[in-house]
Specification:
271 residues; 13 helices; globular
């Protein structure tokens, strides 16, 4: 009998299932809120399939209900601009083929990215990303369908506390990475920038500015590195370093600062 510990990927699947459960709940809340705001059920389901961005979708519902479709699109683009550094980080993990990159960029979410980066470097991060990406996508859309069918039963996600499920899950995924002091300082700097700018800037910009904190710390660390001056020449392991020939001593009786007479030559002929 195969135990869960011996089953390949059992731990990864269990962790993804826990996040997917929260994804279903929040997706159901979105579907219910969209229907309550007057958006057709088919439009809410289509948005979950094509947009697949929880924060942008909740924001779009409010803006669409207020009659501002252009603002909904622009706000969604601004809010999802944080996926640019995600793509740079996970580019090689997703795959090198074009179809892998196109599909992987659509499945890339905060949860899938954090879950993938939380895996040890020696682990199969590519398998973890695709497993998390596909299962979370299915969970979000299944939740949206349930919410649409419920017809507003779920209500406001803030009233139910469902809006706190994703931040709590992200913090749990990122905690192992915060054991490194340098990573912890960068995370605290980014969080401080985001908290201070949230009351002053539109949604989405504080998250982008939060990247400035870690960036400044990284630049400061690079500038603080000592630059080696006149470093000795390195030799390959197992080889003998080149011998340094000492300068030839002047013959007895030679004046200081004059060149010695070359060997093999006689005295100068008289004029």
């Amino acid at each position: 009998m195969r135990t869960p510990e011996r089953t390949p990927g059992a731990g990864v699947l269990r962790d993804v299932a826990a996040i997917a459960a929260a994804m279903v709940a929040v997706g159901a809340s979105f579907g219910a809120v969209a229907v309550a705001a007057g958006i057709p059920g088919w439009a809410a389901v289509t948005m979950s399939v094509l947009v697949y961005a929880g924060g942008a979708q909740f924001m779009a519902v409010g803006l669409l209900a207020a009659g501002s479709p252009v603002a909904a699109v622009l706000a969604g683009l601004l809010l999802n601009a944080r996926h640019l550094p995600f793509g740079l980080t996970l580019g090689d993990t997703i795959g090198r083929r074009l179809r892998h990159r196109l599909l992987g960029s659509h499945l890339m979410t905060d949860e899938a990215t954090a879950f993938t980066l939380a895996r040890p470097p020696a682990a199969d991060r590519r398998r973890a990303f695709w497993l998390a990406g596909v299962l979370l996508f299915l969970a979000w859309n299944a939740g949206t369908v349930l919410g649409v069918l419920a017809g507003g039963v779920a209500g406001d996600p803030a009233a139910l506390g469902l809006d706190a499920a994703f931040p709590a899950g992200l913090i749990a995924l990122l905690l192992p990475s915060l054991r490194d002091p340098e990573t912890r300082r960068m995370a605290l700097a980014g969080a401080l920038v985001a908290v201070l700018t949230t009351p002053l800037l539109p949604a989405g910009l504080p998250v982008l500015l939060a990247l400035a904190g870690p960036g400044l710390l990284a630049v400061r660390r690079i500038r603080a590195r000592p630059t080696p001056v006149d470093a000795p020449e390195m030799t390959a392991p197992g080889t003998t370093p080149p011998e340094i020939t000492p300068p030839r001593a002047a013959p007895p009786g030679a004046a200081a600062g004059t060149d010695p007479v070359p060997a093999g030559r006689g005295e100068k002929e008289p004029c």
